[in-house]
Amino acid sequence: MNDSSEAATAAAPVRSAAAAAPPPPTPADPLPGLQAPARRTGVVLATALAVAGLLGAGAAAWYADGRIERIEREFARRVQHLEASTQQREQQLKLLGDSLRDAQGKLALTEAKLADSLGQQLQLRQLYDEMARSRGELMLADVENSIMIAAQQLQLAGNVQSALLALQDAEQLLARSSQPALIGLRRVLTRDIERLKAVPLADFAAAVARLDAVIAAIDQLPLLAEPAMPATDDGAGASASATPRGGLLGLPERMARTGLQGWDAFVAELRGLFRVQRVDQPESLLLNPQQRFFARENLRLLLLHARLNLLARNEPLFRGDLGRAMKTVERWFDTQHRTVAGALTSLRQLQSTPLAIDLPSLADSIAAVRTARASGDSR
Fold first, then answer.
1. Spatial distance between the Cα atoms of 41 and 215, rounded to a whole number of angstroms
2. How far apart are the two ends of the chain, measured CA to CA in Å?
């Protein structure tokens, strides 16, 4: 084993020397024409692989760019949709906020009315407790309550009859009392009763009936755009019936009468075809059937609205509706016709009908009954 290692050690310098020595000249390549095409084929193949790699990288980049662009468009679309949804939600929140504020305002108003009602109930309870003290105080409290009811009827509803009945009930309570201290209160109350009896009452039932009659006659009111009905000449018919049926002796007279009858018929036809009338607004003559229908319905709506304001005793709105209705009639309807003239007359009379009445105040009676109660409490 040692011999072999020594031999390997001795052979190592020999191999290193052989490696350091220049290589022996190689003999010439026996096939130079075959190796050159192989090298060119390798270069072409490497080039093709490189080009294919570049094309693949370009295609991948183009695909990635298109995908990114689609993602950006989708993102922009979703952002726009989100913005629109956000705006819609903001509008809804604004509407909800407005509704909430309205509801809060109504709730506050309701609470105020409830507090006022509770306060009034408390005052009434205290009033009833005080009425139980004595018979005189109870009677004065009833009188004051009746006067306050009458004052409320006058101020809130303008109902003179109800106020008069309440004052008469109070006056009857005072009439059953024999206290001399209440003579002055009874005198003041009687004066207020006489003032209420002297108040003129508006005849609302007659006004409503007259307005209903005008509304019912709207379909019979002729429009300016409607063709005029041809007039009939009774004289022509009478002359035709009076034509003699004699023989040849009356032939010239019969021919003359026939000519006159023909002329009268011709004039009657012309009168039916032509109508001379001054119209300040020419468009009133150009209404088609549908527009005529809407003209009548517009007049009907104005009069119905006026009827509601009449029942509500709202004089300004009632007069305004009647004024607009009369302008509509004068614009679209034939004011020379008898029915249209009658409707205009009725509307003018209704417009001049007084609805608001100056009602007397019951302050004297209220002051007198409170003074009587205060004097009773002091005693």
1. 109
2. 157
- The string of pLDDT tens digits covering residues 307-321 is 988 877 778 888 899
Backbone angles phi, psi at 334, to 5 degrees: -80, 100
Tokens of 244: 């003699």
CA torsion sign for 235, 236, 237, 240 is positive
Confidence of residue 225 (pLDDT cuts 50, 70, 90): low
Integer Cα distance of 339 and 345 in angstroms: 10
- List the structure tokens of 105: 């305002």
Backbone torsions φ then ψ of 306, nearest 5 degrees: -65, -35
Do the Cβ atoms of 137 and 144 come closer than 8 Å? no
Whole-model pTM?
0.38
Please report the pLDDT score of residue 302 as a whole number. Answer: 93
Backbone phi and psi for residue 205, each to the nearest 5 degrees, phi listed first? -65, -45
Dist CA 164 CA 172 (whole Å): 12
Element spanning 292, H or E: helix 289-311
Measure the CA–CA gap between 177 and 182, rounded to whole angstroms.
8
The CA distance from 96 to 100, in Å, is 6
Written as six digits, the tokens of 346 are 């009725």
Cα-based angle 264, 268, 274 (whole degrees, multiple of 5): 140
Of 340, 298, 339, the C-alpha closest to 321 is 298
Return the bridge partners of 333, or none: 223
Task: List residues bridging with 223 in a β-sheet.
Answer: 333
Give the position of tokens 């190592």.
Answer: 12
158 backbone φψ class: left, alpha, beta (φ>0; ψ -120 to 50): left
